[in-house]
Amino acid sequence: MAEGVHNYPFRLPGVLEPPAEWTELRQECPVTSVRLPSGDLAKLVTRYDDVKRVLADPRFGRRLTADDAARVTENESGGVFGSELPTEGLDQGPAHQRWRRLVARSFSARRIASMRPRIEAMAERLVDDLVAAGPPGDLRSGFAFPLPVWVICDLLGVPDDERGRLALWSETLLNMNRYSQAEIDAAQAEFAGYFVRHIREKRENPGDDLLSDLIHVVDAGDGRLTEGQLMVTGQGLLVAGHETTSNMIAKMVAMLLHDRTRWQALLDDPGLVGNAVEEALRFDANAGFGLPRYLSEEAEVAGERLPAGTTVVCNTAAANRDEGVFERAGTMDLSRWPNGHLAFGTGVYSCLGQALARTELQTALAVLLRRLPGLALAVPVEEIEPLEGLIVGGLSRLPVRW
Q: Which keywords does UniProt give here (predicted)?
């Protein structure tokens, strides 16, 4: 297993089961060569300490558009990580840190707390629709997918009737093998055109939303944020802000229902919901591609010297199963605390929206437990198929009954 070049991402033995390669590589070859869907070569890191070190090291940046960086996909643009998506200088260095501080203030605890009642109300409405349609139902399409779409669009002031198009564009940009280069280019162009119009409308009619706040910063003219950077920020938040959470809601519920003693434990003690969310994030075996980084100068990882120009993929899901860090790492333990998983990354590029994602996951789970205590899988887990090619991983559907 440890020798040679391995095709990556690895295939899952089942939607809730991790690839055997994760354990083997952690034990035998923590830094290994992999061939990406594009055919380009990269290095894969799987141990917790190594992944954490790489993600925190400023030499491993996000300049994935460099001429010698590995492409993720065979398409010329490389999809969401490719050269057709502009970064406007926000991908590394002091500019990135200034941008993070600015956007982080917009993800304030006050704003997220104020959104929780609206998130809960939307979750309740979606459950009402599921119940009205009657069992069995697809929890992914009927609940897990539309809830985060609604949340991120609410955050950015996007009207309800425009959300379907945004979801289609983001799915196009996040899929590694489903779309042609022409389709990716068209989605990028349409998405950019839409956002130019949306910013113009928001500038004329500002609201109590994050995008209006950021437009105000641009218009202050003090150089903290340019118009181009505003575009990149808004598009990035829309793309990243719903696909990851949508798929995580579905996977989390599938994990809890696959061994229904877990679901019952939460019914018996709803106070474990926060723990359950963190453990689902750690235990997730269907975490997609991982976090790619570009090495700007020579560095050593796990005793191996890597030259400048190396693309390194950090498999955070494999790291979250590291037996040297997590006791009984292969067991989903709803009482596990503290839980130092790396699902949101770490260091200067950790997920800006993690507080919002946690709020969505906790609220979604609490509403389902309260409204549908008898929830159960409607098919054996072996019949549930993964979403093929999606960078963030996911389930194609989640049939349930109640």
A: Heme, Iron, Metal-binding, Monooxygenase, Oxidoreductase
Q: Are 177 and 388 in contact (CB under 8 A)?
A: yes
State the average pLDDT over residues 283-296.
Answer: 90
Alpha-carbon distance of 146 to 128, in angstroms, equals 14
Q: How does DSSP classify residue 373?
A: T
Sign of CA dihedral 206, 210, 214, 220: positive
Segment 185-229, tens digit of pLDDT? 898 899 889 999 999 999 999 998 889 999 998 999 887 888 988
| Mean per-residue pLDDT, 151-163 | 87
Alpha-carbon separation of residue 379 from 8, 237, 326, 327, 371 (angstroms): 29, 34, 31, 31, 21
- pLDDT value for 330: 97
384 with 395: CB under 8 angstroms?
yes
How far is CA 248 from its chain centroid? 8
The architecture that CATH gives domain 6-401 is Orthogonal Bundle (1.10)
pLDDT digit string, tens, across residues 21-47: 999 999 999 999 999 988 999 999 999
Q: Are strands 311-314 and 41-45 parallel, antiparallel or unpaired?
A: parallel
Q: Among positive and negative, which fits the CA dihedral 322, 326, 329, 332?
A: negative
* Terminal CA-CA length for the chain: 43
Q: What is the DSSP letter of 227?
A: H
Question: Could you tell me if 156 and 238 are in contact, meaning their C-beta atoms sit under 8 angstroms apart?
Answer: yes
Tell me the one-letter amino acid at 295.
L
- Residue 303 has a pLDDT of 95
Write out the DSSP string of 330-360: TS--TT--S----TT--GGGS-TTHHHHHHH
0.90 exceeded by the pTM? yes
Query: 49 to each of 3, 95, 324, 342, how far by Cα in Å?
Result: 22, 27, 9, 10
| 137-160 mean pLDDT | 92
CB 119, CB 146: distance < 8 Å? no
DSSP-based three-state secondary structure for 230: helix
285-315 burial code (b ≥16 CB/10 A, e <16): bbbbbbbbbbbbeebebeeeebeeebbbbbb
